[in-house]
């Protein structure tokens, strides 16, 4: 279980570097992460087990992807959010539960708002400056996982 979380953290760190340096996320890395998420769901799926357990695992994966699906839909409607940000959140949600990915997204948005507010006060960015989201999501994911591990959950 910790192996998937470690691999996900490494992948999200690589995606963060691309988001910071190029302001774009390579599609091949997103597809690699999605394939890994689907493999993990398939690995824990009880193929011959009770249908209630199968429904629970699929429901957790789909509900976890819901915040990312909403973010992807917002990217198409508003154009203010990057499409890659939503897809990475879908990938993160498929590997976590809905409450965890929602909390990680909220912490990422709050930290991004605070960081950009400080930069705005010091006249380093303007009102329409695009900021990378994935580094903040990676940071919040890592911090929340460490806190969860520390608490023994």
Describe the structure.
The relative contact order is 0.14. This protein starts with a helix and ends with a helix. With 153 residues, the chain is mainly α. It has helices spanning 2-22, 27-44, 51-78, 83-95, 98-121, 134-151. The protein contains 6 helices and no strands. The protein has one domain (2-151). Helix 1 (2-22) packs antiparallel against helix 6, helix 2 runs parallel beside helix 4 (83-95) and helix 4 runs antiparallel to helix 5.
Task: Briefly say what this structure is.
The chain has helices at residues 2-22, 27-44, 51-78, 83-95, 98-121, 134-151. The chain is mainly α.
Features:
153 residues, mainly alpha
Helix/strand order: HHHHHH
Largest sheet: none
State the domain count: 1
* Helix/sheet category: mainly alpha
What fraction of residues sit in β-strands? Answer: under 5%
Mean pLDDT: 89
CA-based gyration radius: 16 Å
Tell me roughly what share of residues is in helical segments.
over 70%
Low-confidence stretches: none
Topology:
Layout: H1 2-22, H2 27-44, H3 51-78, H4 83-95, H5 98-121, H6 134-151
Helix pairs in contact: 1-2, 1-6, 2-4, 3-4, 3-5, 4-5, 5-6
